[in-house]
Structures are given as C-alpha cells and as structure tokens.
Amino acid sequence: MNRGASAANTRDYLFDNYKVLLIVLVVMGHFIEPCYRNNAFLYTLKWLIVSFHMPAFIFISGYFSKRKLKFSVILKKLLVPYIVYEFVYYFFYIFILHKETGLYLLYPKFSLWYLLALFVWRAVTPLVKKCPHYLWLSAAAGLFIGCSDMADNFLSLPRILYFYPFFLAGTNFDRSILEKFRKKSFRFLSGAAVAFFAGCILCVPVFDTLSVKVFYGRYNYDFLGQDILTGILWRALCYAIGSAMTFAVLLLVPNRKMFFSYIGTRTMAVYLFHGLTYSYLKDCTDLLKNVTTVPESLLLLCGCVLLTAVYSIPQLTTFTNKVANLHFPAAVTQTGMPHVRASADSITGFYLRACHLLHEKKTAFTWILYRRKAHAGFGPMMFLGGRF
Fold first, then answer.
1. To 5 degrees, how large is the angle CA 332–CA 335–CA 336?
2. Paired sense of beta strands 382-383 and 386-387, if any
3. Which sequence spans correspond to the domains of the chain?
4. pLDDT tens-place string over residues 353-375
5. pLDDT (tens digit per residue) in 241-297
6. Could you tell me which of 58, 285, 287, 338 has the fewest CB atoms within 10 Å of its CB?
7. For residue 256, which of 7, 2, 15 has the smallest C-alpha distance?
8. CA torsion sign, 188 to 190 to 195 to 197?
9. Average pLDDT rounded to a whole number, residues 337-349
10. Which residues contact 213 (CB under 8 A, 6 or more apart)?
11. Mind listing the pLDDT tens digit for each residue in 117-151?
12. Is the pLDDT of residue 328 over 70?
C-alpha cells in the first residue's frame, strides 16, 4: 500500500464533511441576507444558519490548531494573506463595484475578519492557556465586549472576543469523546433538537422582533436595542445555542467518505472568493433582493451549492496556498525608512516594512490609473470588466 492510499484510509472524513456543510451554509447565509425577510422559509433558515455556522467553523479551526507554531509562521500563513486579500477586495470594490472605500487594514472588508481573527487566536492562545479558568474568562470577555462603544469593525475585536471561546473549546476537544455519542439514539435526539429550534423560530414571537445580528458578535448591545443586562443574557443564550447546535449537527454528519468530501479540504478558497460574487450581485443588481417565493428561494439555494462547487476547483486552492507561502522580495527590506530598518531583525519590523511597501505600490498604481483616465478623451476606462 502506498503512502497516498494510507493517508486516504486514515483521514477523518467527519470533519471534512462537516466543513462542506458549513461552507455551504456560509455561502447561503450571505446570499439570502438581502431577502431572508421576504418569506418564512428563508427567515427560519437564516436564523438556523447564523445560530451555529461560525461557532462550528471556529470550533473546528481550534480543533486543528492544537499544534503550536512559531509566531513567524502564523504571521506568514495568516496575516500576510489577510493583507493580500484586503488589496484584492479593495481593488474589486473600487474598479468593479465603483464603491467608495479605502484600504483600511484595521477595518477588515467583508469576511476577511476571519483571517485576522485566526491570526490573533493562534498567536495568543499559548499565552491565554496559562491563565486559570481561561475558557470562562474568554466567555466573560465575549459577554462584556458587547458593552463597549468601540467601532464594531475595528480590527474585528468584538467578533474576535465573542467567538474566541469556541476556538478555545476546539483546542481542548477530544475526538474520542464524540464516538460515545454517535449512536442512533443520540443522533435522533440531535435531529429532534434541531427541528425543535426551527419550530421555535417559526412560532415563538420573540424571533419576530429580535435581530439575527445577536449571533454576529459584531454589534454592541446599544446597537441591538438592548440594555446591558438584557444584552448579556441574550449573548449568553447565544453561546448556549451555538454550542448545542454545533454538537448536535456534528452528530448528524456522516463520518465516511462522500462524493463531496474533497470540498472540505478547499473551504478557504470558497470562503474568500464567494464574497466577490455576492458583493457584485448585491451592489450592482436587484436579483437577490427580489427573491420572494419559496421556489425562487430554493433556486437561490441551489445556486449557492453550485457556487460552492465552482469555487472549490483546485486552481483556486492552489492560489490560496501560494498566498499563504509568499516570500517577500529583497525590496521589502529596503523601504528607506530608518526607524523600520532599525528593527529589521524583528517580526514587527518585517510587518511594518511589508505594509509600507504595499501601500506605496497601491498609491502608485491608483495614481497611474487616475492619470490615464484624466488624459483620456473618451469615456471611462475598462479595467477587469469594470469601469474606472
């Protein structure tokens, strides 16, 4: 038996299959955002999705983050790609969507907050775990950050703190415990629990007035129209629901190889690039807003599944892998900044030099395009299918 066959036989397809389900739900959750209030089916689905899809994804990320990495590796694998994709989204917003925006590296665009969050979680977890009762302390931080009036998207700190307990729980999770619950009786109870929660969404009046944003972790209690006590209680309930749904759905996922299992190894490409399609349809068309009937809703959901398959092609995953293994050229270390050169041997200095170089390139590129447009005697210039 060759090494490839041995690896295939020992692969844990349970988490691959779970990640496939979750990435499909991520795509669906975004694409139904403009229309989920149009019918009860989409409204219920939206609540079900947001209640656990990110907690589950983050839990799995924590589970696969048990191995300690050097800070330089974490920087290279997560922070550098975050900066690269910020540029991708920046240029897409400017040239394709014609959207007023800036290159705000401290305010992540769309779903890029997750890369930044993974960087922070991987970097600080070894230190956090040295504290007693760190899991409860992280939950307390997630509860009380909702009292803050900081900008909801600044470094995605509210979301980083809110979801951090799920990441920590994943790092502590023992896979062998799961096998004790993967029996028919427990799986039946899990399915019943999910159905019960769906019924509550449909029948309990509070879900008609409460915003699904209580599960986002991004917004403070004042924004959600809650006083501090009410906000903390609801957020604690969100923690409970997210944890229960994460575990319940995990029991329902098949643990054998399926025809779609390969997508579970390519979720990063789907996660990063589906936002480009969604942003275009949301900002440049009325297609998503006009989904009203159940047949139209089902057609949209089928489109989301198809889009997930399209963005899971190996070429995109190869691209994301290359971005995660970028090596900066020698020019990065020659930016002409004395105070940065003084810290040339430090990781912080490396990060600052990289940001400075990328900022210079972005400014020069934007100026060239502006000059070309200003001196053109006819209409706007076409750029990658958009207008400048």
1. 155
2. antiparallel
3. 11-327, 328-388
4. 545 544 554 444 444 444 444 44
5. 999 999 999 999 999 999 999 999 999 999 999 999 999 999 999 999 999 999 999
6. 338
7. 15
8. positive
9. 41
10. 219, 223, 224
11. 999 999 999 999 999 999 999 999 999 999 998 87
12. no
CA distance 192 to 9: 32
Place of tokens 């690039």: 273
Q: Contacts from 372-380 at CB under 8 Å and sequence distance 24+?
A: none
In this prediction, residue 353 carries a pLDDT of 53
* 35 vs 290: CA distance, rounded Å: 7
Burial class (CB in 10 A: 0-12, 13-18, 19+), 85: buried
Buried b (16+ CB within 10 A) or exposed e, 156-180: bbbbbbbbbbbbbbbbebeeeeeee
Hey, what long-range contacts does 130-137 have (CB within 8 A, 24 or more apart)?
Answer: 134/168, 135/165, 135/168, 135/169, 135/172
Distance CA 251, CA 218 (A): 28
Mean pLDDT score of the chain, rounded to an integer?
A: 85
User: Rounded to 5 degrees, what are φ and ψ at 100?
Assistant: -70, 120
**3 state DSSP class of 383:** strand
Q: How many CB atoms lie within 10 A of CB 386?
A: 18
| Model pTM score | 0.83
